[in-house]
């Protein structure tokens, strides 16, 4: 069987808040009748990304086309979650023409690519491409950089370790797996910084892979789909920090919790606090929905580091409480963060 007979799947990866969901949304908006199914995986108990996409009004984003795998790391739950989900999609009377898989921001893509070699799905799907979305301003700010002195000290203590910064490790693994790198949030950098970043990333990639700048993940489907990479046949070209452990890895470096919110008369004070809380407690990501008294619309809130955005996305369809998902590094003081957010 050639790749032509297989359903192509695109893995959209990239660190927390890089803009994966935004890119997937844009893609769906410009899908031009392609039958695309979406699998969304998230770190954290509540699926905010799935919620953001589901029934967002874009044709193709109907709930039945979006499967949420909320169980942390897709690459660690391949047998239980991922393979059965893929089989169920492929067994549909009208199988999708393309499958988009949005990984959690903390997932390592390589074990997921490997999963395409499982006999249960190998003859039916292929990885058309791994699209790695990069938060350009976060990289420019040195968010994923190692501190060379700390690395040297750590190596001296334990030669099997090569990073002091778990963010750096995830970032590198995601870049190493890429068939296309999207340098997103280009609007937040000047031309010269963006050009320098583009060259720097291109130079560190293990293979010749295109690096394309984007704003709001706005790229033509023709750029993202049809890469025909068959990545599952090409694993050796995608080095991972976890190769030695055969893909096994821990997510102990990161922590997340869900903070239920009261209903608010006005969200202003809460919204004003969030960037400072994120900065003070080194929170990586905050996202969720605020419920306002007497307002049928829910207020979607998205924060990456100390950069926040909010908008009314759609009416609440249930009587769930407002809530925020908070993701940080291990050791984050959950109670202090919760107290600071609630004010
Ligand atoms: N300024 C700017 N903001 C962006 C851009 N793309 C996305 N964002 C914002 O960045 C935040 C995170 O975007 P998402 O698309 O949710 O990121 P994600 O990678 O899916 O996040 P996780 O699933 O939590 O890892 C949101 O507030 C977006 O509106 C961009 O090009 N420029």
Automatic annotation (TrEMBL):
Keywords assigned by UniProt, alphabetized? Chaperone, Hydrolase, Nucleotide-binding
Question: Tell me, which GO biological process terms does this entry list?
Answer: cobalamin biosynthetic process
Query: Might you report a single GO cellular component term?
Result: cytoplasm
Question: Is the Transferase keyword given for this protein?
Answer: no
A GO molecular-function term, please? hydrolase activity
One matching Pfam family:
CobW_C
Q: Give the matching InterPro entries.
A: CobW, CobW-likC_sf, CobW-like_C, CobW/HypB/UreG_nucleotide-bd, P-loop_NTPase, Zinc-reg_GTPase_activator
Q: Which residues form the CobW C-terminal domain?
A: 254-342
Q: Which reaction does it catalyse?
A: GTP + H2O = GDP + phosphate + H(+)
Q: Which family does it belong to?
A: Belongs to the SIMIBI class G3E GTPase family. ZNG1 subfamily.
Described function: Zinc chaperone that directly transfers zinc cofactor to target proteins, thereby activating them. Zinc is transferred from the CXCC motif in the GTPase domain to the zinc binding site in target proteins in a process requiring GTP hydrolysis.
Question: PANTHER family recorded for this chain?
Answer: COBW DOMAIN-CONTAINING PROTEIN (PTHR13748:SF62), COBW-RELATED (PTHR13748)
Q: By what name is this protein known?
A: Cobalamin biosynthesis protein CobW
